[in-house]
Amino acid sequence: MMRLSFLFATLLTISALSLVTARFQSRQLFVKLDRLEDKARQLDTDWRRLQLERAELQRNVRVDQSARQDLGMKPATPDRTLYVEGPQTVSAPGAGKAGRP
Question: Using alpha carbons only, what angle is made at residue 38 by residues 35 and 44, rounded to the nearest 5 degrees?
Fold first, then answer.
């Protein structure tokens, strides 16, 4: 009878340990799954952002090509740039203080 009780106690202990181990592994896998899902969402967001950037760059290239080929435009360089100076305005003394309390 003692041997049978000892055998059942041993089997019960082994069963309890395997249950604890299985639950621990289950929790670890759940945490890993959650992290991987977050990473997948982040990668999806990055992919969409890159798609938008690519579309924007393609549009800029198309506009640049059209400007160069159809309109014969060339990039502005400092030696071909004219700088126009507007009339210089002189403020009256004390004019800037009117808005201050």
Answer: 140
Distance CA 50, CA 42 (A): 12
What b/e string do you get for 81-95 counting C-beta neighbours within 10 Å, with b at 16 or more?
A: eeeeeeeeeeeeeee
Alpha helices in the chain (DSSP H): 2-69
Amino acid at 68: R
Report d(CA 29, CA 18) in Å as an integer.
Answer: 16
Q: Do residues 63 and 57 lie in contact, with contact meaning Cβ atoms separated by under 8 Å?
A: no
Asked if residues 74 and 68 have their Cβ atoms less than 8 Å apart, the reply is yes
pLDDT per position as a tens digit, 48-97: 999 999 998 888 888 888 888 888 888 888 888 888 888 877 776 665 55
Give the global pTM.
0.50
State residue 7 phi and psi, 5-degree precision. -65, -45
